[in-house]
Amino acid sequence: MAKLLKGKDVVEALNEKLSKDVEELKAKGITPTLGILRVGERPDDLSYERGALKRCEQVGVEVKVFALPEDVSEEDFFDTLDKLNNDITIHGILMFRPLPKHIDGEKARKLLCADKDVDGCTDLSLAGVFTNTNLGFAPCTAEAAMEILKFYDVALSGKKVAVIGRSLVIGRPVAMMLMHENATVTICHTKTVDVSTITKDADIVVVASGQMESVGADYLKEGQTVIDVGISWNDKKNKLCGDVIFDEAEPIVDAITPVPGGVGGVTTSILVKHVVESAQRVHI
Amino acid sequence: MAKLLKGKDVVEALNEKLSKDVEELKAKGITPTLGILRVGERPDDLSYERGALKRCEQVGVEVKVFALPEDVSEEDFFDTLDKLNNDITIHGILMFRPLPKHIDGEKARKLLCADKDVDGCTDLSLAGVFTNTNLGFAPCTAEAAMEILKFYDVALSGKKVAVIGRSLVIGRPVAMMLMHENATVTICHTKTVDVSTITKDADIVVVASGQMESVGADYLKEGQTVIDVGISWNDKKNKLCGDVIFDEAEPIVDAITPVPGGVGGVTTSILVKHVVESAQRVHI
């Protein structure tokens, strides 16, 4: 039976640490503040926003929501973004994307100030991940995976890691972050031949294929740690599932993140951590 | 006996293509121009500069050399960099580094305009390599390795590639560029355990360990393509050597770049290619 790498324990530890950091900042007169820039009311955005609000409240980070109507003019949108970029009382900006079609989303991404890019979507944030410097912030999901490995003391240096997926929000950044910790990383993707041989050869497998329950027993071996980044609704099973077939993987491997209750919840805490770090970078 | 992947043939093909591109630009009144910013007269810089001048001349790219004295003031240096950044008749800037200690090299790298960063050293250039977009230009050596593979029709999609080395000038960028071409890449480095097992399992091995003659017969198997990025003077053998033990590798593998005569010469051509591309991006 595998050890369950529960996100909850990681979140609790992060909350404790962040609460202290926020207290210290507030003692200096600084209130770490997240600005949320949302256009319209997409259910996914609202759901993530609720999670962020709750997590911020738990540690004392303030949130200002800038909710613009679905039909906001492009000019008004960019005025608001500009205001958020230049407001020194706002330390991090979460800009929900995709934006409505009449707003140039790529322009918005490029204009977002990297210093406040707590969601890790700007080019400079990604350059920072690639070069291992603090140019902005890492994509939250990638850092959440790293935070879980760190919290549960999973050794990385000299270990073989197979990453399945090469997206800019998780696969590619987590591969770089693992390499910065001296892991030997192989990035698998849709064109990779014989993925299961590669994953079976690894000490750690990070699954971010975006394909629900696509990694089963034949991809895994005993002794491994598995980080499952996927989360999708399974109509047949009538529950949330990851990219790993949990019931097949769990009896084989040493440790695995559950879905739900694994990476997902930690991601929001990383967003909050970035807001606090941003305030620290400016003020300490 | 392995096929020799000679740089010379790649350079000739590039020269032919670039000459045509330059002609087309000149017909529109545009002369692609490289600005070289050099402080002092370090032999390495001068040698690379001579190579660049020659290669530019061959295809009709103009070069303006801004040679500043070793003791130039920091202010004058940054004024010159600013001038180069803002001069619309200069399409690419080669800024020799490291700069003397009294000039902030990191500041210079950050101020260099990414649009003209034909040497691929700015954060935006590196972000472009990571995200596979044209934000600047790839580091020349990494692109030279890719150009050789392309010229000699080495299949990449679905192939396993082992990259030895994780520097920002070659290992990391070439790994990303190979992945963008759908190769399955493993990045090996000083903390990697059992590198030879990983390289033996690969179809293509890119060696940029920075350790002269560190990769021999026990790292290789038949059928492989080997790109040797290293170049160092071997005192014992009294000749230039790569990071691969050529005499051991050549009888085993299918194809290999010689040293000298492999990647090195192509690198300068990529620099010139970037200058032409920069002029095209602005004017076409």
UniProtKB/TrEMBL annotation, chains A, B:
Residues 139-281 form the Tetrahydrofolate dehydrogenase/cyclohydrolase NAD(P)-binding domain. It comes from Pseudobutyrivibrio xylanivorans DSM 14809. It holds the Pfam family THF_DHG_CYH. InterPro entries: Aminoacid_DH-like_N_sf, NAD(P)-bd_dom_sf, THF_DH/CycHdrlase, THF_DH/CycHdrlase_cat_dom, THF_DH/CycHdrlase_NAD-bd_dom. Catalyzes the oxidation of 5,10-methylenetetrahydrofolate to 5,10-methenyltetrahydrofolate and then the hydrolysis of 5,10-methenyltetrahydrofolate to 10-formyltetrahydrofolate. PANTHER family: C-1-TETRAHYDROFOLATE SYNTHASE, CYTOPLASMIC (PTHR48099:SF5), C-1-TETRAHYDROFOLATE SYNTHASE, CYTOPLASMIC-RELATED (PTHR48099). This is Bifunctional protein FolD. Homodimer.
